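Weekly structure sync, notes
Attendees: PL (lead), two postdocs, one rotation student
Agenda item 3: pending single-chain targets
PL asked that the sequence for the first pending target be pasted directly into the notes so everyone works from the same version. It is reproduced below exactly as submitted, 465 residues in total.
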Amino acid sequence: MKPFLGSFVLPAFLLASTALSANAQKEETSCRACQRLPKCLEDSSVNYEELWKCMTNANLGDPPDNVNSIADLEDWCCEKCLDLGDLPYCQEGKPTGSPSKSPAPSQSPSPTFDCAGECCDCIHTCTIQPDPHYTVWDNTYYDFQGGCDQYAIKNDIIEVQIATRPRSTYSTITQVTVLMKNTSESFKIAAGGAPPTANTIVTGATYSNTGNVHTIDFSGVPSFIKITEWGSNLSLQVVGHGTIFSNSEGMCGSWDLGGVRKSDGTVYSTAGGWAATALTSFPLANSWKIPPPPANQLLIPALDIGGNPICDASKICGPGSAFPCNAVRKLQADKKCKKRCNTIDDEAFADACRLDIKNTGSKSWACQPSYLEPVLEKASPCDFNKPDDEKCKPKKDRKEGYLCHRLGGTCETKCKDKAPPGYTCLKDLCNKKKKPNKPGPKPEARKKKKKCECMVPLPCSRDKK
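Predicted structure, written out during the meeting:
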């Protein structure tokens, strides 16, 4: 029998199957690349072609044909990889796993501000996590160790109310309520599940729950609120979009102005780090104290016998204290925790972890979920409007713009008198507003000029322990 010398042709259905398999494999590879998009996007100078190379390790050639920008690339990923549950820039991207959803969401978009400011399309983050540590919209941070029902976020669209309670060696969040003010829909949770978690949010947002994680995703914008139960503590993580969170104030800071302010607009200094601000933050919390119901929408408001709100600076509970210890549970140590604070990527959160261990003696804080999976968007000083003194205006550099504002400062007359601890005054970055010359002879004696200087936070003030 002669050997076969002709070419071998695969049956058509096998060729088609092979092609489909190759396409499926390529699509799977592309979706894995999409998971790397947020990490590659940390370099703000990258363009969409360089971003695609970073995502694919330059192994998949040119970007897809219909991709001509970073936004196109995000849309392409969201369209091609809908089955992935961890794409933070997609509406369906949170939380992971197979969440339960209740009740069924409507198709209505999220209520938004009709705003045209610099930061309507900005994304900022706020995290309040047990001890509790507050990291606000502009990435500054501080501590409050007392017990108080307080506004974390408050504007005309949304309120996020939290309750902190003392536990003798530390304080923690025990309740969170998210209130959509246009519809009166809400999500309410208390640590320990009593009373049970309740949700009525369906308009412009979707509530979902996976294990101990509760997430509210806002429709049409890359924005969500994530609440995590850990032992008998709650942590709050917010990725805010300007169309929903513009004009908000509260313990998460000022969305429009940056920094942290009391309810009367007075600036609160975050200088000195976690430990130092724990000693100075009670007036701030007290100013954002929630009035009695119906304003207070928490499941268990803190009220005295007369129905007045209780807000106390102490982390001590028990007889003679504002809060009894039987109202809370002690820290439940995670015996399986093998991590250490120095394994936490964010330096500020690592410092917070060390302070937690110092306060409580428990090393399990190194496994606190919001430390291990932080929600943190780097904010630029340019994102915030700076309320300069009316008589004192910033100088504009041709290349660098308003340098005072870029440094996170404001132009002030009598700067040295106004500067709180942790701030300094820089010369030559601001100009005194000129008044029009009045007709007639000039006065012989001129009054001493008021200095117009740039009041900025000291760059190292946040690192002091």
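Discussion points:
- Residues 1-21, 91-107, 460-465 have pLDDT under 50 and may be disordered.
- The first strand starts at residue 100 and ends at 101.
Action: rotation student to compare against the earlier draft before next sync.
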